[in-house]
Amino acid sequence: MRILIAEDERDLNRLIAKTLEKEGYGVDACFDGDEALYYLEHTEYDAAVLDIMMPKKDGLTVLKEIRRKGNDLPVMFLTARDSVSDRVQGLDSGADDYLIKPFDFDELLARIRSMTRKRSPHASSLITIGSLTLDTGSHQVTRDGKHIELSSKEYAILEYMCMNPGIVLSREKIENHIWNYDYSGGSNVVDVYISYLRKKIDGGHSKKLIRTVWGSGWTIKEDL
Predict the structure, then answer these.
(1) Are the beta carbons of 210 and 197 closer than 8 angstroms?
(2) Total domains in the fold of the chain
(3) Do 162 and 66 share a domain, yes or no?
(4) Residue 73 and residue 135 in one domain
(5) Per-residue model confidence as pLDDT tens digits over 6-60
(6) Within 10 Å of residue 198's Cβ, how many Cβ atoms?
(7) Rounded Cα distance, 13 and 58, in Å
(8) How many helices and strands in the chain, by DSSP H and E?
(9) Which domain holds residue 108?
(10) Which three-class secondary structure state does DSSP give residue 135?
(11) Domain end (from 119, 147, 175)
């Protein structure tokens, strides 16, 4: 998943970004409301974490503008304002969640998983495709009940594919979804990771789940 962090406290912004990147998320970070709006209008994200008290435009204004344009992206507010009226205002403005500073990073991660799952067609944290099971909560992957060890990027790509079973995902679409604006890797990096996944997911199995659609990209699906 790709997430936008808009937080003007630079140390906190950096810590949130590093925490999410360790979990396999693609992360873009900015420090004021104008930047946040630019990112949100030019990039497809799975979620955004917005500080309410940002320079130039506050988080409430940013959220109202994207909602007015029909963007239903899951959004969490971060704020030191902890009164009931502040929380009500934040949620009434269209936010999906509201986390008060200081907070525990494990709670932040759990809340991000929860609010993105609510917008997903998968009501449970478990996604099953044939004999493959992926748990979006624990990031555990098994096939035929056997645990499969994946790197954070391998997991992120597999999760993206499993959330879109049967849909052909192009190289560009996977790059844009998994990596951030700072990414400067080679043009074949997605091909390399898909190759790793094939070995780990399909190696030793007669039924192959990861398919190449020549000239278009890749998909994951079970044979009917």
Answers:
(1) yes
(2) 2
(3) no
(4) no
(5) 999 999 999 999 999 888 788 999 999 999 999 998 888 889 999 999 999 999 9
(6) 16
(7) 16
(8) 8, 11
(9) 2-119
(10) strand
(11) 119
